[in-house]
Design a protein that fits this description.
This protein is an alpha+beta fold. It has one domain: Glutaredoxin, CATH 3.40.30.10. It has six helices and nine strands; from the N terminus they run αββαβαβαβαββββα. It has a seven-stranded mixed sheet with strand order 2-1-5-4-3-8-9, with helices on both faces. It has a two-stranded antiparallel ribbon with strand order 6-7. Helix 3 crosses helix 6. The longest helix is centred in the first third of the chain and has 31 residues. The protein is globular. It starts with 17 loop residues before the first helix and ends with a helix.
Length: 230
């Protein structure tokens, strides 16, 4: 028997909002599972679709330059049979070059799963200044993995030949009137190029645009299906 002086415990009241909260949480969990299933189905459907055939442009001729490590770099030895992406920058560029390199850094993160089958190559358009040491410092700012991403310097005639004749990209140290530009100033194309396993350019992309990465990854997926690793 409870003494008359004892105070009875207060009744526990159930919040009328609690069932709604629990119901909302359950609904979110269900929606998450459904979304995951849809994503997986979309990926499976995408893998089953026939590859989109990309355009074909110019063919990049074999070349030999110097990598940021100081080692000789031969396109035949390093790139033959691989898919690769290329751009042309210089380390003191105050304009689009840092944006272009940032796009390449984003791509580096995405293509790690290819385990070296897809490579990144950055050429300097000011090789007299951009020594291997300067290229190394520049590459380190973007955490460029030397296994996946090469930075190349060497003879200007070779680099410009690769850009103009191989990639059909504009590069030069003269203005539109043909007058020499000030030291450290250059005209160079700001596009990133996608090259297939046979050395053929298959796409060009605005290197400064944030949406470029997704466009490249989409086309890269098509190219990998068209030309699977042998």
């Amino acid at each position: 028997m409870t003494p008359a002086s004892a105070t009875a415990p207060a009744p526990v009241r159930r919040s009328p909002a609690l069932p709604w909260v629990l119901g909302a949480i359950l609904a979110l969990v269900i929606l998450g599972l459904v979304a995951a299933t849809v994503r997986q189905s979309w990926k499976s459907a995408g893998a089953a679709r026939p590859p989109v055939t990309l355009d074909r442009f110019s063919t990049v001729m074999p070349f030999a330059l110097t990598e940021r490590s100081g080692a000789n770099f031969s396109s035949d030895a390093e790139l033959r049979g691989r898919i690769w992406l290329a751009d042309f920058v210089f380390t003191t560029c105050p304009g689009p070059c840092p944006q272009m390199t940032a796009r390449m850094a984003e791509l580096q993160t995405e293509i790690k799963r290819t385990k070296g089958d897809v490579r990144l190559v950055t050429f300097t358009v000011w090789p007299e200044y951009d020594t291997p040491e300067r290229l190394t410092a520049y590459a380190n700012k973007f955490q460029a993995d030397p296994v996946m991403w090469s930075f190349l310097t060497g003879q200007r005639s070779v680099i410009y030949g690769v850009a103009i004749k191989g990639f059909q990209l504009g590069v030069g140290d003269k203005d539109s009137a043909g007058k020499p530009m000030a030291e450290g100033e250059f005209i160079h194309d700001t596009r990133i190029a996608l090259v297939d396993r046979k050395g053929v350019v298959r796409g060009y992309y605005d290197g400064a645009a944030p949406e470029t990465v997704q466009k490249i990854l989409t086309d890269l997926g098509s190219l990998l299906r068209e030309q699977p690793k042998g």
